[in-house]
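Help wanted!
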Amino acid sequence: MELTYSEKYRALQTEVRAFISKHGHLSPKQGGGRQKPSRKALEWQKLLLEHGYFARNIPKDYGGFGLPLDVLELAVIATEIGKANVYPGIMNQGISMLVPTLLEVGTKEQCARWIEPTIRGEVIWCQGYSEPGSGSDLAAVKTKAEVENGHFVINGQKIWKNSAHYSDMMFLLCRTEPDEPKHKGLSYLLVPMTATGIEVRPLVTMTGRATFNETFFTNVRVPINQIVMGRGDGWHVANVTLKYERLLLGDANRLSSRLVRIRELMERTTLDGLRIMDIPEYRDRLLRLQGEVMASKYHGLRLLTEQTRGEDSGIRRLIVKYNGTMIGYRLSSLAVDVLGAAGLVYDAMDEAAETDEATAWHIDNMYDIGLMIGGGSTNIQKNIISERGLGLPREPKAVVPPARF
Amino acid sequence: MEFALSEEQKMLEASLRGFLSDRLPMERRRAIASAGTGHDQEIWTDLVAQGIGGLAVPERHGGAGLGVLDAAVAAESLGYHAVPGPFAACLVMSPLAFQASGTEAQQEEWLPRIAAGEARVAVGFASPIGQTGMAKLAFDGKRLSGRVQSVLDGGGATHVLVYLADDLPALAAVDAEGVRATLLPSLDRTRPLLDVTFEDAPAVILNAANDPLTARTRVLDAGRVMLAADTLGAAQSMFDQAVAFAKERVQFGRVIGSFQGVKHTLADLVTVLEPCRALVWFAAYAQDAVPDEARLAALQAKAHLDDVGREVARLATEVHGGMGFTDLQGLHYWFKRIDSNRQLLGTPERCRHEAAVVQGWIST
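Answered by r_m:
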C-alpha cells in the first residue's frame, strides 16, 4: 500500500488546482445531463479539452489531448475537480459510450469524423438499443435494415432513448441478417436523427418529464458505410459499448459527493426543532451509507491499481454497477426522507425543476431506479455476476409458451 | 499510488492459509472448540513458528516489526479458517499497548515474551467502549479490585491487561493471588471470553504515555480493525462454502446453483462482501500511515463488516438448506464468530455514533 502520489502526480495536482482557481468561476452548475448542453457548458468543455482535463487520452487528430493512458492521472484530475465541486465536463451517451467504442472497433474515418464534435459537446448521440419487445433480452431486437442501392433501409421502433428529442445522431442496433441465428444477425449503425422517416415521440417517465422517447423508423435510409465493424458484428459492438456504460454507472466519486451534499442537508434541516443530524435514527442511516460509500471508494482504488498493472479484476469489476446504483438509490432516498413533508412540492415540468432542491432530489431518486434498470438491469447484473463471476450454471433453456391459436 | 497488498503480505497470507487448510480440518476445529479452552498448544506453537507471534512486536524486541495491515492480513486468514485460539488481543492489541504506554523497561520485559508466544496477554476494558457487560475496577496504586467481563482472547491467557476508568492499562498475571479468571462457555467456542474478578490483586500500571486516552484509543481501534478483518475472513469462508455447495447440491434434478433464487442471493452477497476487503485494508493501513483518517476508518470498518458479516452469515447458511442448520456441516463456527465480533469492542450502532463524533457531525 502506498497511497501518496509520486512527484509527477503531485505536479499534476498543483496544475489542476491552479486551473480551477483561475477558471473555476466559469464552470456551469453541477447536475443536468438530462438537457442539451448550455453555451456555458460548451465553453467550459472547450477549456477542459485545451488543458487535457477531458479526453486526455484521445488522439490529437480526433480532438483529444493525445497523452497515453495513465489511470492515476485521470484519478487525480477527477478527484481535484470533484473536491472543488466544478463541472467535470459533459457526460452523455455519445461521450461515455460511443467514443470509446469507436476507438476500440471503429475505422479511422469514423473516428476522425465523429469523435471530435462529440467530445466537444456539439454532436449529441442517443442509444438505439431497446425495443418494446426487447429489453433485457437485447439480442432479440426486431428493428430491421435491408440493403438497397448502397444504403441500409431501416424499419422498426426503438424506445427508452434518453435525449432522443435533442440528439443529432443515434447508434442503432438492428437486424440485418434475418437468416442468421439471433446473436449473429445484428449490425450497429450510425444514424442521423434528421433523416427522413424518423419520428420521435416523447415518452413521459415516472418523474413526470418527457426525458425518454420512442423513435419510429419508416424506410429510413443511411449510407452503407455508416456501419461500425461489419454486418453481423452488431452484438459484439453493442457489448463493447455496454461495458463502458456499466463502469460509468458505478462511479464512486459521484457517491462521495452525494454523501457530502446529504450531510450538509441534514445539518441545516430541522424536524420538530431538532437538527436532523441530531436525531439518531436519521444519523445512523447516513453513517451506514458512509460505510458503504467508503467501501466502494477504496474498492475503486483497488481496481485502479489493478488496471494500471494490467491485471484482470474479474468479479471485482462485475459488481461495480449493481453496487454503485444500489447505494446511489439509498442515498437519494435518505435525502428525500430528510426533506420530508416540506419536500413534497413537486413540479417537474417547471423550468426550475433542476434548481429546486427538493424537486431535484425526488427526480434523482426516481432516476436512480432508471439507472438500476438501464445498462443491463440489476437482475441481469446478478446473472452476470453469478454466472461469469462465480461460475454458477446458466439457466436452463427457455420454454416459450405455445401460441394459443 | 498503489492500493494493493505487497508481495510480502501476499506471501504471509498464502503461507498462513496453506498451513491452516492442512492443519485445521473440521474434526480438529470441532475437537478444540468442544474442549472449550480456546487454546491448543500444538496449533499455537505452529502459528508462532509461522511468525504471527511477533507480527506487531518491533524487531529490537524480537518481533517482525510489521504494521496493522500485516496483522489484518493474518486476522483475515485466521477468521477464514475459524482458528481456535487467541490473536487480536494477545498478538496485536497487547503489544501495541506496551509500545504506546509501557516504559522502556516494561517493553524490554514483555514484548520479547509476547513475540515468542510465552506471554499471552488477554485484554479487557473497564472504561467505556460501547460494550455491554460488567466492568468496574478500582486500583489503589498497587492492587486491583473489581470485575471485568468479556475480556478478549481468554483462551490460554497467562496475563490480563485491563484499561481502567482513567484510560491507563493495568497488567496482572492470571495465576496471581487475588485473581480469579473464569473462562466462560461462550457463544464462539473457538475464542471464549474471560470473566476476571480481582480482590486486592497485585498489578502494574503502564503509565508512560503522554496522552493515555489517545494511547488507549489506538489500541482499541487496532482491535476493532482486527475484528473487522476476522469477520471479513469468516464471511468470505461462509460465502465460498455456499458457492461450492450450490454447485454440488442437486434438487429437482438440477444443481441448486442454477436456480436464480440461489444465484441472485450469492450475487447479492459477493457484491457487498468484496468491497469490504478494500475498506479493511485501508482501515488497517490508516492506523499506521494516515493518522487523520485512522479513527473514522477503524470505526466504519468495524460497523460495516459487522453488518455485511451478519447478512453473509445468514444467507450462506440458508443456501445450505437444512444442512446449514446442523452441527455436522459446521457452518455455525463461523456464524458465531461473526456474531461475537459484532458484539465486542463496540457494536455497529455504537461505532457509527462515535464516527459521527469523530467527524464533528455531533458534539457527543
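OP: Thanks! One thing I noticed: The mean pLDDT of chain B is 96.
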